[in-house]
Amino acid sequence: MSEEAKVTEEGEEVAGAQAEASSLADNDEAVQGSGPHVPQDQDGADEPEAEPDWEDLAKRKAAELDNFRKQAAVRVQKASRDGMKRVASEILPALDDFERALAHAEAEEGDDQHTLTKGIRLVQEQMLAALRRAGIESFSPKGEPFDPHLHEAVATTLVEGADSGAVVEVYQAGYRLGEDVIRAAKVVVAA
Question: Which carries the bigger pLDDT value, residue 118 or residue 22?
């Protein structure tokens, strides 16, 4: 082979080797680009990931748990109060019937001792005591000013010496659980 032919062959071989090296470099970049990105600082070293603030995270989770406990306690207390109010509203008509029946029986003149009505009155008192232990109390607003949140006016009447708007007679006692009114008192109001 001549000198010129050798150079051309070597040039082709060198050009082929350069093309092959370029192709391999492109493949390496493609492979590296498809994997997870590792941040590098200026000098090419890997950056360590920032460590989470475990103390702050623990405090936040403890506060969330504390808030959850408080909210759960409030919900349980509210459900308990609602349940007591529902039971009381079911029992109160029976207590009213007791009162009316006893008043009628005691008004009859046949039994001066009222032994039967005394026994029934004891049962009524036990039921009222059970309601008081549950926090449910009756109220009779005779003489107080009329309050539409606590009283239900069933009639108005003219009464001498009574202020206008004052409760002069209570037909049915009211009941409340704390500040919540279970049943408003039925009253007659002075006109």
Answer: 118
